[in-house]
Design brief:
Length: about 240
């Protein structure tokens, strides 16, 4: 009876080498595909947030949503918009933690806990609510440059809605502005005039390939590199 011929050691090593080469080629492709899917999912989230942004303005005489409406931060801008998106399903969660998020409010590309804020509001330009400069009803807050902050800006007062950030992928950088993302969530964007040209507290994230998906006041969404988006002009500061 003829015995079956097995593989030699050299043949096995050749097969292993081929598999390793294929893995080295395909794994980066798979990783890029996952990153692209997360970026697309994030853009879809922002489009839905944009619709809520517009519906809120329609319901409140063309006034844009304020960031906080009292000193506790509850309800905040997400709580006010959430009923237009998920019929208030996040209401109880937002009462416990104003930085918490679920469903549409979670950026799928965010690192760290997925129940922490990943989208920031351009509050100091579009409406700080309780953080507005005039007091009462605001707390007397001003930007680092001394710029006054409105309670709730009328939509008609936005000079360039197609080029003014409303909401963007956001993270908390602390003292390290060079990282692309951090696990710490934040839901408020600070423009350059507040931070004197450096990222400060909540700022535009670079989690999506060095840039962020950005929702503009006119409700369109587009991706931009961090350094292109982090300008006073893009935040609507000093634009007449």
């Amino acid at each position: 009876m003829r015995r079956a011929r097995g593989f030699t050691l050299i043949e096995l090593l050749v097969v292993i080498a081929i598999i390793a080469i294929l893995a080295a080629i395909l794994f980066p492709v798979f990783a890029q595909a996952r990153a692209t899917a997360r970026k697309a999912g994030c853009a879809s989230n922002l489009k839905q947030i944009g619709l809520a942004f517009a519906m809120y303005a329609q319901d409140y005489d063309e006034l844009l949503v304020p960031h906080w409406i009292n000193s506790s931060g509850i309800p905040d801008w997400k709580t006010l918009l959430d009923p237009y998106i998920k019929r208030g399903e996040n209401a109880e969660l937002f009462k416990k933690d104003y930085r918490a998020e679920l469903s549409i409010w979670v950026d799928p590309g965010k690192m760290g806990q997925q129940n922490r804020a990943g989208y920031g509001h351009n509050w100091s330009v579009l409406g700080g609510g309780w953080f507005s400069t005039q007091k009462p009803p605001g707390a007397g807050t001003k930007a680092g440059s001394g710029r006054a902050i409105p309670w709730s800006l009328p939509l008609a007062a936005v000079a360039r809605p197609a080029d003014t950030i409303a909401v963007a992928c956001c993270t908390a950088y602390g003292n390290d502005p060079n990282v692309l993302d951090t696990p710490e969530g934040f839901d408020a964007l600070y423009p350059p005039d507040w931070a004197k040209g450096q990222p400060h507290w909540g700022d535009i994230s670079g989690r999506h390939g060095g840039g962020a998906n950005i929702l503009f006041v006119d409700n369109h969404v587009r991706w931009m590199r961090r350094e292109q988006a982090f300008t006073n002009e893009m935040f609507g500061v000093g634009v007449n």
